[in-house]
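User: Need the bound-state model for zinc ion:
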Amino acid sequence: MRCPFCRHPDSRVIDSREMDDGQAIRRRRSCPQCSRRFSTVEAAVLMVVKRSGVTEPFQRSKVITGVRRACQGRPVGDDDLAQLAQQVEETIRAWGMAEVASQQVGLAILDPLRELDEVAYLRFASVYRSYTSAEDFAAEIADMRRRAKGGDAGPGDDTEPADGTGPGTARGRPETGRPRARGVPVS
Ligand SMILES: [Zn+2]
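Assistant: Bound-state model below.
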């Protein structure tokens, strides 16, 4: 690994230790040229298989993009979305798989989104959960109304098509997920 201080093309590992219950390894490195030290973190890249069959690294920003559209007009802030995306990543990583389907990412979004905002949840779920029949969907809505006790979780104003809101369809966002390895300069 290249030294982040002097760009020397090689460095020496002087210590390795596990982080996050073995999901990542932190290495202390020393540069043979400038003798400065830095750390790297190595973690498995979580890949998402899109419906098209294309795989790409998991990105929290894509979860946020997808969920934000379902949250239009709802009292959900950027902090809520960032927290939800973190929860989703933790859930998926806890499955211990190197690769997940984009539909599984959608399913991992459902529970935390329901906690956050039921209307947004319904919009999102209408795309990502495969209801076996219209009755299932109606039952879901009735269940929500019961829990909301007369709240605003009705389906009446949620008929807009939630097209392209998923993590598999967002485009052009910079990657903000966990990088393959990150150098942390330590002076
Ligand atoms: Zn160096």
